[in-house]
Amino acid sequence: MIRHILKIVWNRKRANALIVAEIFLSFLVLFAVLTLASALIGSLRKPLGFEWRDVWNISISGEAAEGASVEAMDMIVRELRAMPQVAAVGASNTPPYAMSSFEGTWVIEGKSVFLTQDRVTDGFAGVMQLNVLRGRWFGPEDDAANYTPVVIDADLAEAVYGDENPVGRRFDEQRQKELRIVGVIAPYRKSGEFANFGKPINMIFERVSAAKGDKLPDNVLIRVHPGTSASFEQTLSERLHQVAPQVNFRIRQMSRMRQLALRIALLPLIALGTVATFLISMVVLGLSGVLWQNVTRRTREIGLRRAIGASAPAVRRQIVAEVATLTTLAVILGVAIVAQLPLLGLFTLITPTAFAGGLAGSLAAIYGLTVLCGLYPGWLASRVQPAEALHYE
Prior knowledge:
Blueprint: H1 2-11, H2 13-44, E1 55-59, H3 63-67, H4 70-82, E2 86-92, E3 102-108, E4 111-120, H5 124-128, E5 132-135, E6 148-153, H6 154-161, E7 179-185, E8 203-207, E9 219-224, H7 232-243, E10 250-253, H8 254-297, H9 299-307, H10 312-338, H11 352-382, H12 386-390
Parallel strand pairs: 4-8, 6-7
Antiparallel strand pairs: 1-9, 1-10, 2-9, 3-4, 5-7, 6-8
């Protein structure tokens, strides 16, 4: 039966070549879409390492930020702490969901590590509810230290030190300013659920303190008590302008910042999904039409098969098997190309699990769609009667 199907496909190779090409392109597009979707779903299931709910971001930008002195920023922070609606106050250069980042490659312990850096105050951990796994977070006791304390996340600790405890070790031996690790927190994903497809960002936090004369970051984060209404934003804005009239403020709830970041992260998937839907629709319509036309042209062949004893289900299975064979030929070409992607460094962008999920999903989808396209032409072929072959011209 298989040899017979292959012979039929080969005898119509010119007509089938276009079908194979369409299925091949559809497979590649489906693979791209489903692999991206699989990577995003896998990333969504991983913990963020912080709590964004009930957090507000007060940012100072432009010339106002340059003009804000250490004393003015310290006064703003103290005023915020005194407000009854505020549970915790901290500051950050690049807070979560701000779509800004400070990244670079450092050489640590002889290893080249790509990491993300942020400069924060002591209260940042309380605002974002960070989980300290080893050591401690920053505190007033660091004001007297003759080094700059840093906290790293577990991903960076594993990348540099493996299973060793990094607390107390100097972080960067090549810099003049000594950085010493005082704590390790849980993996931290500052850009949100879909950033980096769940890959570690290797986070390091450097302490800044008004007590040591450091300029505080331009993003002041506050955690408000649960149930605080949106009307508090107006009260907060008015109070801040009273305290520092020379400074311009922008107040945003982190929940809204998160929504915007998620929309931007999903844009590639939406674009690819739209292209894939259009292409698959064209393939389904085209494949159904071509198969229907083939059945119409093969009335004599099908009628003769029925005359020599082939049953209607057998004819229907033959048509579906021909479609599955064409799909297999296209899929073999597609898998041969897709299999080269890991060699080109694809796994630096997505995980092997996402790759396997995208490949399995695209195989299942392309076979399901093409076999579905062959059901109606197969049903038409099964209705051909042996007598119709005698009237074929």
